[in-house]
Write a structure and sequence with these properties.
Gyrase A, domain 2, binds flavin-adenine dinucleotide, 242 residues, two-stranded parallel ribbon, 17% strand
């Protein structure tokens, strides 16, 4: 089978629940009980004051009453990192036991920062663009060779009629997998704070892997559009999850 190579991590919105008005309404339950929904003024910018207060003082639970579901197509090495986010995240991933995995593999884009900077440190890993075409070519050729051989063996294994969950063991972490990811705004903010690098805006600067940041940036865009006031408050309070 022909192999497909991709340099992207694709994120699409499957469903959306709630919005800024539900953050406000959830907070208002404390003072109004069952009448809280009456305070959910969907359009008013006045809601920003309360949302900002909640964010600033880390009253996090009102941000748990919404949800976004994403479909994400990402290499396994991204999933290894994403699945570490345990709280407020639900996952359903395609199975290597019940279906044949697609021959789709990750290759870095030419512009992906990949060369270690001088004085590189593991705790603050910074990279710059590879200016040497040959280095880039050697890296990509090696990846392609290993993907091609691995997928050939995978198909051979499937042909043996053994458990597909065993046949796949030869595949490398560059193989793509599709997954639904559902989270609430609070857990999404926690994820974004760790999986994006924002030296200017973030109170605690993180240095995530480039490819998971590609996904996080796509999620952030969807979040900003769906929860504009919550997003603004999060941004203005140093991108710290409440
Ligand atoms: C830049 C970067 C580098 C990393 N490097 C490594 C690495 O080298 N090796 C490695 O193993 N991991 C690494 N990680 C993963 C990291 O350790 C976390 O597993 C991951 O970021 C998920 O964070 P979390 O636990 O806060 O998220 P979640 O699991 O979603 O938890 C959210 C919050 O819930 C609370 N919580 C969750 N579980 C518990 C618990 N058991 N006890 C108490 N409180 C809990 C905490 O407040 C936590 O912040 C790295 C992450 C980043 C961003």
């Amino acid at each position: 089978m022909d192999l497909k190579f991709k340099s992207t991590v694709d994120v699409t919105q499957v469903q959306l629940m709630g919005g800024d008005h539900m953050v406000v309404a959830a907070a208002k339950v404390a003072t109004t009980g069952t009448d809280a929904m009456a305070f959910a003024n969907v359009t008013s910018d006045d809601n920003f004051g309360l949302i900002n207060y909640l964010m600033k003082h880390r009253h996090g639970t009102p941000f748990e009453h919404g949800a976004v579901t994403f479909f994400v197509h990402a290499p396994i090495f991204v999933w290894r990192e994403w699945h570490r986010h345990r709280i407020g995240f639900s996952y359903n991933e395609e199975s290597g036991r019940y279906k044949q995995l697609e021959p789709c593999f990750y290759l870095p884009d030419r512009e992906r920062p990949m060369m270690k900077v001088d004085g590189w440190k593991p705790g603050r890993p910074k990279f710059v663009r590879c200016e040497d075409d040959r280095t880039f070519q050697v890296l990509c050729d090696g990846l392609k060779r290993s993907y091609t051989e691995a997928y050939r063996i995978y198909e051979e294994n499937l042909f043996l009629n053994v458990d597909p969950g065993l046949a796949r063991d030869c595949l490398p972490v560059g193989v793509y997998s599709g997954c639904w990811v559902t989270c609430n705004p609070r857990s999404l903010m926690a994820f974004l704070s760790l999986r994006t690098c924002e030296p200017e805006a973030a109170k605690f600067v993180s240095y995530p892997l480039w490819e998971i940041e590609l996904a996080a940036r796509a999620c952030e865009k969807i979040f900003a559009e769906a929860y504009p006031l919550t997003y603004r408050a999060w941004q203005e309070n140093g991108r710290v999850a409440p």
